[in-house]
């Protein structure tokens, strides 16, 4: 069992803290940014932020490449079809999530948005089970931990659910109940983005001695995101879906957003500041989400993100002047009490999910049983025991641990690594590890 002190010193803990701060900053700065925009709609916010992401991440990639922190072989592998296909899917998913969520938010009652958004956690669990190169297998207590986290989230939503039940006019859909389905469906691309991000980290780690650079991944993702945003501009004036009534209104809104951001419109003196602040928190959330997905999993990222909503309610209550200045929603002390009560429940569920997770080794293998013993070798030598048609064979030593195994008959193989420290092959206890065969 990991001690509290060791947990507080772990990179994962601080990545989770950074992720919560980034997500919380997004929730707090977005209404302030929108409140300062006299011109420009939600599409402008999404498009301009995706442009800022490219400026930041590609500049950072250039600096890291020149200083040798991103090796050339990583760039070469990034442009292969296998990597580009996954990076393209992540970028398109990010753009689709933004458009669907922003447009659905304007057509979904506030009291119902919180409960509908919780579809993210079970969808992430399901996607992580089926998506290739991730393929999680869960223990019972992990599922219980995820359920406890969701219960904690609903505890924070008790006032909203009560309002929706007792004030039916607040829970009515102004433009049709089908927007509830759109709101829930917006969670799907967000889930795919995080799960496939984890898949890329796992894939690269399995074929190289280093980890895939997170900033390079986010740079490619941002490039495909902004291209997808350009391609999806027509959704802004799609009848019955986008907020603009026609092409002319959409173009005027987009141009007005840029004018307001750069100070060419009156009453927009804080628009640039709030926009940069929002983009900065967005970038922070991206970076730490990638770190959590790499060091742990997309499931952990979805559970940790649940802390941001109740924390934002506490902030608006604690700083009412900021809520008024940002034209935020009305939040009572009852909301704050339920939000505070939800935090320990969410944390307990998240800790349970992590505590009962099967051990994940540094090279991406997941330990599922520990009953194997074989002649392991130290240094760079690994012992491999292949399962062919379900029957294990004797292990053999190979000098390169990344040498591919012979084609398996049943689609997977078992890989045991010796614990010996001698290059001549000291005997060491082994565990059996299972992973899917890579394409």
TrEMBL record:
<feature type="transmembrane region" description="Helical">
    <location>
        <begin position="12"/>
        <end position="37"/>
    </location>
</feature>
<dbReference type="Pfam" id="PF08627">
    <property type="entry name" value="CRT-like"/>
</dbReference>
<keyword id="KW-1133">Transmembrane helix</keyword>
<feature type="transmembrane region" description="Helical">
    <location>
        <begin position="215"/>
        <end position="234"/>
    </location>
</feature>
<feature type="transmembrane region" description="Helical">
    <location>
        <begin position="337"/>
        <end position="356"/>
    </location>
</feature>
<keyword id="KW-0812">Transmembrane</keyword>
<feature type="transmembrane region" description="Helical">
    <location>
        <begin position="43"/>
        <end position="66"/>
    </location>
</feature>
<feature type="transmembrane region" description="Helical">
    <location>
        <begin position="271"/>
        <end position="293"/>
    </location>
</feature>
<feature type="transmembrane region" description="Helical">
    <location>
        <begin position="143"/>
        <end position="165"/>
    </location>
</feature>
<feature type="transmembrane region" description="Helical">
    <location>
        <begin position="300"/>
        <end position="317"/>
    </location>
</feature>
<feature type="transmembrane region" description="Helical">
    <location>
        <begin position="177"/>
        <end position="195"/>
    </location>
</feature>
<keyword id="KW-0472">Membrane</keyword>
<dbReference type="GO" id="GO:0016020">
    <property type="term" value="C:membrane"/>
</dbReference>
<feature type="region of interest" description="Disordered">
    <location>
        <begin position="395"/>
        <end position="439"/>
    </location>
</feature>
<feature type="transmembrane region" description="Helical">
    <location>
        <begin position="87"/>
        <end position="106"/>
    </location>
</feature>
<feature type="transmembrane region" description="Helical">
    <location>
        <begin position="112"/>
        <end position="131"/>
    </location>
</feature>
<dbReference type="InterPro" id="IPR013936">
    <property type="entry name" value="CRT-like"/>
</dbReference>
<feature type="compositionally biased region" description="Low complexity">
    <location>
        <begin position="410"/>
        <end position="422"/>
    </location>
</feature>
<protein>
    <recommendedName>
        <fullName>EamA domain-containing protein</fullName>
    </recommendedName>
</protein>
<comment type="similarity">
    <text>Belongs to the CRT-like transporter family.</text>
</comment>
<keyword id="KW-0813">Transport</keyword>
């Amino acid at each position: 069992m990991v001690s509290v002190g060791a947990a507080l010193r772990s990179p994962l803990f601080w990545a989770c803290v950074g992720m919560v701060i980034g997500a919380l900053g997004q929730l707090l700065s977005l209404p302030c940014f929108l409140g300062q925009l006299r011109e420009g709609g939600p599409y402008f916010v999404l498009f301009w932020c995706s442009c800022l992401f490219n400026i930041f991440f590609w500049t950072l990639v250039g600096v890291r490449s020149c200083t040798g922190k991103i090796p050339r072989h990583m760039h070469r592998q990034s442009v292969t079809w296998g990597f580009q296909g996954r990076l393209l899917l992540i970028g398109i998913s990010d753009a689709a999530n933004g458009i669907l969520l922003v447009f659905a938010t304007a057509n979904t009652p506030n009291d119902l948005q919180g409960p509908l958004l919780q579809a993210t956690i079970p969808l992430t669990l399901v996607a992580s089970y089926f998506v290739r190169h991730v393929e999680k297998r869960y223990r019972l207590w992990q599922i219980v931990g995820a359920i406890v986290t969701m219960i904690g989230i609903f505890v924070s939503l008790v006032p909203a659910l009560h309002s929706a039940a007792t004030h039916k006019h607040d829970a009515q859909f102004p433009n049709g109940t089908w927007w509830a389905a759109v709101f829930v469906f917006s969670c799907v691309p967000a889930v795919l983005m995080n799960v496939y991000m984890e898949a890329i980290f796992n894939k690269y780690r399995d074929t190289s001695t280093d980890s895939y650079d997170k900033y390079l991944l986010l740079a490619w993702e941002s490039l495909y995101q902004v291209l997808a945003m350009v391609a999806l501009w027509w959704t802004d004036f799609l009848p019955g879906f986008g907020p603009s009534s026609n092409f002319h209104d959409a173009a005027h809104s987009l141009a007005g957003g840029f004018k307001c951001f750069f100070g060419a419109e009156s009453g927009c003196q804080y628009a640039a500041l709030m926009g940069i602040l929002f983009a900065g928190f967005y970038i922070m959330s991206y970076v730490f989400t990638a770190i959590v997905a790499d060091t742990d999993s997309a499931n952990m990222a979805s559970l940790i993100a649940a802390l941001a909503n109740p924390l934002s309610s506490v902030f608006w209550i604690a700083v009412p002047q900021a809520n008024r200045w940002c034209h935020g929603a009305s939040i009572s002390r009852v909301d704050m009490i339920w939000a505070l009560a939800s935090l320990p429940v969410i944390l307990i569920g998240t800790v349970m999910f992590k505590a009962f997770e099967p051990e994940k080794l540094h090279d991406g293998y997941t330990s599922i049983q520990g009953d194997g013993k074989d002649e392991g070798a130290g240094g760079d030598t690994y012992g491999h025991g292949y399962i062919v048609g379900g029957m294990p064979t004797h292990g053999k030593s190979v000098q390169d641990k990344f040498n591919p195994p012979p084609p398996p008959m049943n689609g997977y193989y078992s890989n045991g690594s010796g614990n010996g420290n001698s290059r001549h092959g000291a005997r060491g206890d082994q565990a059996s590890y299972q992973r899917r065969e890579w394409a």
